[in-house]
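Bug #77: duplicate submission created two jobs. Keeping one. Sequence:
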Amino acid sequence: METLTLTIGEEYSGKRLDAALADILPRELPEVFAGTSRAQVQKLIAAGGVALDDELVPKSRTVKGGEEVEVELALWEELKVDRGAIQFSEDELAFDFPILYEDEWMLIGVKPAGIVVHPTPGMNEPTLVDLLRAKHFRLADTDDALKPGIVHRLDKGASGLLIVAKDTPTHFALQQLFRRREVAKFYLALTLGADISGHGEIRSYLDRNPKHRQLFRTAEEGRLAVSFFRVLESSHLLKLLLVRIITGRTHQIRVQLQSRGQFIVGDEDYSRGINRELMHFLQGERDRSYKRAWSEALPDEAKRRDLLAAIESCDGIFLHAWHLRFRHPHTGAEIALFAEPPLYFQRALDVMGWQLPQRDPRELIDVG
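Kept job's structure:
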């Protein structure tokens, strides 16, 4: 049995979903859920392991009684694993974190695409935190034992600059810089999609997708997200965008660009259809773009094969944290770092005949 299906009794009407399930599950299937706490149920709901009438809902949802609930038992077993007890040797980790800056308080390196920053309950795959531990870096203690030293995150599929704190006071100070929006963060995004104006601001609210709780969407309510962008290069096939994020919401760039008709190359979570059409086109199948615009933009079949090879060699998406700039929280010195895009990203730019700007990114995106 991979899924437990049950009906919530009328006696739970008015209760929160997590509270109701914390009471129901140990009685419904004691050999699996005996001793289950409400906090554990909350993690299961947050991980997308509970559907209420075929819909993924938040833990705070109030039930009426009579709803059908489906519980993913395999996910529950994964979440029970003590992820903090899993350790990797450096030899077991087939990726690196090149350090561009290090002092006694912090280090800043380049995360490769396809690597998760920190583990979560139930995750067995190695993460950046596992690598840092295996290399015996000193990492700040944080409120979450699975996130030592982590000041901010990058999506698994994204690559680029990431700051890690070595001690708790520095971790707190860096987080305050982020909260006060005193860290300038610039990203490069290679996108598919319709024509887009030269530059602009995207201001919207983001909320979880009720059908896919690991994904997000623009909404009338939620958490405010603010980004600025400039089109660096453009063709009827691809665009190269520079994006500066003011807030740091999960999947912010991916969701907001999608709302403007721009889909990040390789991002099958938010733009599976158009990305698969691109791959079919590059593999020599029919051009399904409007008026065969892709064929016009890239008529050379050899270049199409080169672009295909670049995309296939990417373990994530074409979103790269390119530039960071902030004042050191202890010395006051300005830190300004650039991380060159990964080889696959640069190969795609070469196919298009595009180069990165040599100007200060702040001159290209002025947020006032």
